[in-house]
């Protein structure tokens, strides 16, 4: 059987929800927060491939205003969110990432890299948002495996210990 981190995460939060989604394949509603994350990821993937922040911002605006291009049209909106608030936040995410990145000497190896890890009779699969190499403090190269998140707040140490990703 094939498992993904998303499947395991959903199962840990609610086994019945995971069953309905992954095994019974019941349709769900597209959440605006998930749509927003998909649009930001697509824009940052372009940035990581090209280094062009302005083009990444344009890509985000295009996808956020035309989410059907990615198949992520929002059907439900979390409380205290709006089209405009997500637009501002998305552009801020891209600008912040690009600003921090311009000071780093790195080599991008891959974006949206698919992986599979056999574990007995099962396979753990997923995608890594970004693989790159940068020099560490000692000057030696470090391989970084980056999973980008667009949550409203940074996770604390306790949440990270419980997060399968």
Walk me through what this model shows:
This protein is α+β, with helices and mostly antiparallel strands and 165 residues long. It is 45% helix and 22% strand. It has 6 helices and 4 strands; from the N terminus they run βαααααβββα. The protein has helices spanning 5-13, 15-23, 32-50, 53-65, 83-101, 157-162, and strands spanning 2-4, 106-119, 122-135, 141-146. Strands 1, 2, 3 and 4 form a 4-stranded mixed β-sheet that branches. A hairpin with a 2-residue loop joins strand 2 (106-119) and strand 3 (122-135). Helix 1 packs across helix 2 and helix 4 runs antiparallel to helix 5 (83-101). The longest helix has 19 residues, at 32-50. The mean pLDDT is 87.
How many helix segments? Answer: 6
Low-pLDDT residue spans? none
- Over all CA atoms, what is the radius of gyration? 17 Å
Kindly report the average pLDDT value.
87
State the major sheet: 4 strands, mixed
What would you call the structural class? alpha+beta
Helix proportion: 40-55%
Give the strand content: 15-25%
**Count of extended strands:** 4
> What's the order of the H and E elements?
EHHHHHEEEH
- Please tell me what the overall shape is: globular
Give the N-to-C terminal Cα separation: 19 Å
Topology:
Elements: E1 2-4, H1 5-13, H2 15-23, H3 32-50, H4 53-65, H5 83-101, E2 106-119, E3 122-135, E4 141-146, H6 157-162
Parallel strand pairs: 1-3
Antiparallel strand pairs: 2-3, 3-4
Task: For this entry, give a set of tags.
165 residues, alpha+beta, 4-stranded mixed beta sheet
